């Protein structure tokens, strides 16, 4: 059994593309990029990149990090150096959710199960809303889950500003979802938020997932400073918005949560990010601090039985990075090997390489660990009442089918 623990199948209609690009690249560049991508999509041409290069307009504050920090693996600098990958990424997201799933299953033909993580952008973006709202995204995800007959194990996106935790309970117990996805850079921290309602919803979530359960419902949380998207909302008294929102994903925010809910099952996704790992591989870790998130994640993994990480969006294993990366990673994870998961982060990782190459590179980098990372580690992470009971019940209610793919989750 091989499991891709972190992928995405929502399409461009499910995310506010313009707001998202603006948050990543600045108001001017992000807005233009969005317009050009729409034009490029219309005629299927990719020559718009020449226009992009020549009409490139500086929105300096927002772009500075993207241009100067080579660790940013989806920044403007990376985009200009890898235009083909950016087009591949955008075109991948233009297809229907069903097409994205079918293509992913076909390309990763030795993976058996997939864990697609939803995205909730409803409270994160100003002046830009998705064509397909959150409820519709959820409905499509439920259809796809039913059709996949146990091979697709989706995580429900939760933004504590958007809805109470009853939505999570319904998603897990009746709608086929087996875990929860949190994306703090959308504008909330895992704990320590000023708004009491947001804090209350988060505490309710952790209680629901962990309390009284020998196998808690798993939560996957974005935990990378070197890539990913942020809210585009202006925050009062804040100058550097990208850094402000990125910092909300910092692993240290989880210390307080885990002090209260010690058995919470958590995947701190990306292990700090591909940029941090590229640098660690080539020059060693920085002292603990702002751009060394991996050591904080590692400490949480060592201190808490149910804290995991994944190597999603780490499709950088080429050239001189490859050997150095696997050496640095294996050295770092000594003692917590059983809590490292693999995820393709497809189709976000279309920015890095094709899906076949992504898996091939990991097989070659970790020949002795690959089976455990995609196998028993992932099964342990995903095993809960949701995979044992709720998802089988959901599938039975939809198609009367008992999936053999869910058998590994039955025994503790
Ligand atoms: Zn992801």
TrEMBL record:
Domain Amidohydrolase-related, residue spans: 124-383
SUPFAM superfamilies, A to Z: Metallo-dependent hydrolases (SSF51556)
A single MF term (Gene Ontology): hydrolase activity
Entry protein name: Amidohydrolase 2
Pfam family, one: Amidohydro_2
Origin superkingdom: Bacteria
Keyword line: Hydrolase, Lyase
InterPro entries in the cross-refs: ACMSD, Amidohydro-rel, Metal_Hydrolase
Organism of this sequence: Syntrophobacter fumaroxidans (strain DSM 10017 / MPOB)
Cellular component, GO, one term: cytoplasm
GO BP terms, alphabetized: secondary metabolic process
């Amino acid at each position: 059994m091989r499991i891709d623990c972190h992928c995405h199948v929502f399409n461009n209609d499910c995310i506010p593309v313009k707001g998202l690009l603006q948050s990543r690249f600045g108001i001017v560049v992000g807005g233009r990029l969005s317009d050009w991508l729409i034009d490029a999509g219309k005629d299927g041409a990719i020559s718009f990149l020449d226009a992009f290069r020549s009409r490139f307009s500086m929105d300096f504050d927002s772009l500075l990090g993207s241009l100067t920090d080579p660790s940013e693996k989806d920044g403007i600098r990376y985009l200009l150096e890898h235009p083909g990958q950016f087009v591949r990424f955008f075109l991948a997201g233009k297809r229907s959710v069903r097409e994205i799933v079918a293509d992913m299953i076909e390309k990763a033909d030795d993976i058996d199960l997939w864990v697609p993580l939803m995205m909730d952008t409803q409270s994160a973006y100003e002046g830009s809303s998705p064509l397909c709202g959150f409820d519709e995204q959820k409905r499509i995800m439920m259809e796809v889950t039913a059709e996949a007959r146990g091979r697709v194990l989706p995580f429900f996106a939760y933004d504590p500003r958007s809805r109470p935790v009853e939505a999570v309970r319904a998603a897990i117990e009746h709608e086929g979802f087996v875990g929860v996805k949190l994306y703090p850079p959308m504008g909330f921290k895992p704990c320590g938020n000023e708004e009491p309602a947001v804090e209350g919803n988060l505490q309710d979530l952790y209680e629901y997932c962990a309390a009284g359960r020998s196998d808690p419902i798993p939560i996957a949380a974005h935990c990378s400073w070197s890539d990913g998207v942020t809210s585009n909302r202006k925050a009062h008294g804040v100058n550097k918005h990208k850094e402000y929102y990125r910092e909300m994903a910092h692993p240290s925010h989880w210390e307080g949560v885990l002090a209260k809910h010690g058995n919470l099952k958590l995947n701190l996704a990306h292990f700090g990010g591909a940029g941090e790992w590229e640098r660690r591989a080539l020059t060693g870790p920085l002292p603990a601090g702002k751009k060394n998130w991996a050591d904080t994640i590692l400490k949480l993994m060592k201190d808490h039985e149910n804290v995991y990480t994944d190597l999603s969006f780490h499709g950088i294993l080429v050239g001189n990075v490859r050997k150095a990366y696997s050496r640095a990673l294996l050295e770092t994870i000594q003692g917590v090997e059983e809590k490292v998961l693999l995820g393709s982060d497809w189709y976000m990782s279309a920015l890095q390489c094709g899906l076949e190459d992504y898996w091939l590179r990991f097989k070659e980098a970790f020949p002795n660990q690959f089976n455990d990372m995609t196998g028993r580690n992932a099964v342990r992470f995903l095993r809960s009442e949701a995979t044992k009971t709720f998802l089988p019940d959901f599938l039975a209610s939809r198609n009367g089918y008992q999936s053999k793919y869910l058998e590994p989750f039955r025994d503790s």
